Amino acid sequence: MRVQFVLSEIRVGLRRNLTMTFAVIISVALSLALAGSAVLANKQVSSMKGYWYDKVQVSIFLCNKNDAKSDPNCTKGAVTDDQKKQILADLNKLAVVQTVYYESAELAYKHYKEQFKDSPLVDSLTPDQMQESYRVKLKDPTKFEVVASAFNGRAGVQEVQDQRKLLNNLFNLLNGMTYVAWAVVVFMLAIALLLIVNTVRISAFSRRRETGIMRLVGASSFYIQMPFIMEAAFAGIVGAGLASVMLLIGRYFLIDHGLALSQKITLIDFLGWSDVIQVLPLVFLAGVLIPAFAAFIALRKYLKV
Q1: N vs C: which end of the chain shows fewer Cβ within 10 Å?
Q2: In this predicted structure, what is the pLDDT of residue 246?
Q3: How far apart are CA 233 and CA 101, in angstroms?
Q4: Among residues 93, 97, 164, which one has the least CA distance to residue 136?
């Protein structure tokens, strides 16, 4: 195969279909940028899950005098000192328990004031209205049911709460947003594939005389198809390059500068530059293979010589 001839055919094809090629590049770039963003978002959610699930606790809230009047779980009255000692002793016997922290009503009131200092309800509450609790750190956060079954319904216990359920609502929202992003990626890729197919069809039609002559002189199908496939792959590489630039710029302005989310939201350990760079080879690989494969399939139908 003469490389010079193939390269000249690629230049001719790109020049004849410049507008369509530009549209393919833009659609591929947007599709791959969204795909890369979806991959990074999925990694971010997984990283957050590993970080926060390791820190979540099980809270055992104890009955106080107010609960004894209004809560059906506290009909036996406020928790007694003996009941608190027994609950603590039983917690320490459980194999799934790593650490137990006691939070008094006064300490709970202090934490509430710090967390909701701007709320108008702060001044209406008093320490005796707050609940005492045991904050239980588990060796395995998924073993919540072991604690719940042991203490739910016990005298002096108002509620056993799994903080993991509160986080699940957040992570379900983030996962839902990731799924929406993937749906948009599929839609954009479909548009890009249609553009590639149309571009190849137009290019093959405009050069049907040249390809017919090549067939008459004995050129193989692969030799004839290669310029068209390379044109699509070239557009894909350029689109992948633009997508990579968008991902890097997005990471720079969203996390480090511009919005500076890493400084404003310190509770989240955002993905670093290495995570973004690891995605770029996949972006380039997809940018080459998807357009090239689409062109190859299209040529089998439209390149009739």
Answers
A1: N
A2: 94
A3: 60
A4: 97
Q: Which two tokens stand for residue 218?
A: 């004995």
Contact 116, 122 (CB under 8 A): yes
pLDDT, one tens digit per residue, over 218-244 is 666 677 777 778 888 888 999 999 999
List the Cα angle 176/181/187 in 5-degree steps. Answer: 130
pLDDT value of position 278: 93
Task: With beta carbons less than 8 A apart as the criterion, state whether 233 and 227 touch.
Answer: no
- What is the spatial distance between Cα 59 and Cα 133, in angstroms, rounded to a whole number? 7
User: Which pLDDT tens digit goes with each residue over 188-201?
Assistant: 888 888 888 887 77
Residue with token string 């199908």: 221
**Residue the block writes with tokens 């194999």:** 95
258: left (phi over 0), alpha (psi -120 to 50) or beta: left
User: How far is the C-alpha of 290 from the C-alpha of 155, rounded, in Å?
Assistant: 64
Q: Which residue has the higher pLDDT, 125 or 89?
A: 89
Beta strands in the chain (DSSP E): 58-62, 97-103, 133-138, 157-162
Q: How far is CA 127 from CA 64, 68, 304, in A?
A: 11, 16, 84
